[in-house]
Amino acid sequence: MSDSVDAPPRVLVVEDDRDVGSGLAGALALDGYEVRWARTSADAARLVGDRVPDLILLDLGLPDGDGLELCASIRERSAEVVVVVVTARTDEADAVRALDGGADDFVMKPFRPVELRARLRAHLRRRGDTGPPELSAGPVRLDQRARRAWVGGREIELRPKEHELLAVLVAAAGEAVRREHLMDVVWDEHWSRSTKTLDVHVASVRRKLADAGDRWDRIATLRGYGYRFETD
Ligand code: CA
Question: How far is the CA of 93 from the centre of ligand 1 (A)?
């Protein structure tokens, strides 16, 4: 969390490749972010330990450790930080594991810097969005300002993208919502689609609702279309 609304968002770039890392850190600093750059998993853990940033751009291929483990430990420390994983195109399975382990989004190398920066902007902008302060449907209630969620009075802990996803579905409770619409609103409209990101997040939200005692099929799958939040 930023200390005040005027403080520039803090971004941590975790990337061992000197050219990619310095290029990204430099470009993001020019975009107005407060940027730190870690080249190893150990450096990243230390910097996050000092102060949790608003967004972490995490290369999974680090010289001194497993980016997936780092991702999980970052997520344990903060439910609020946005984690965007960067991975080689051949490692989509790793990216999906990272999403399961707490990442909010992933990008494949090679990426176009201008697109990546647009995507980070979108992530950070949405973080500040409050939308309607309260949303509820069926047993689910969301406090958008506090970023808290309850199922039948029992609080559940949602990651940022899970919260946004559930908010869109709850706001449209009883109505079908297209997959493309969810990707556009919760992720980024100008980014090449990977529906795995959406699938993993829906699965995780379903699990959390069910763990809190709600029905497994609260979020119904509409084959070839999208999802619907059931109100009954
Ligand atoms: Ca690397």
Answer: 16
